[in-house]
Amino acid sequence: MTQTPKTLGRTELAQQYFPYILPHSAWQKFRALLLDNPALQHLVSLRRRSFLPAEVNIIYQHLGHP
To answer: pTM of the full predicted structure?
Structure first.
């Protein structure tokens, strides 16, 4: 059974993918991952600091679960 993702802060999600580096650096690396994927590029330009559950689900589909 797949768990429905919750709203996550962008740095919080980035730290799940890069847990061993500083939060700001994790976001920068995660941002680069998003920009490299055409289906996810639009998520970088959002004017909020969190991703909605549907957006988290899209990220998981394209990048896999952290």
So the answer is: 0.88
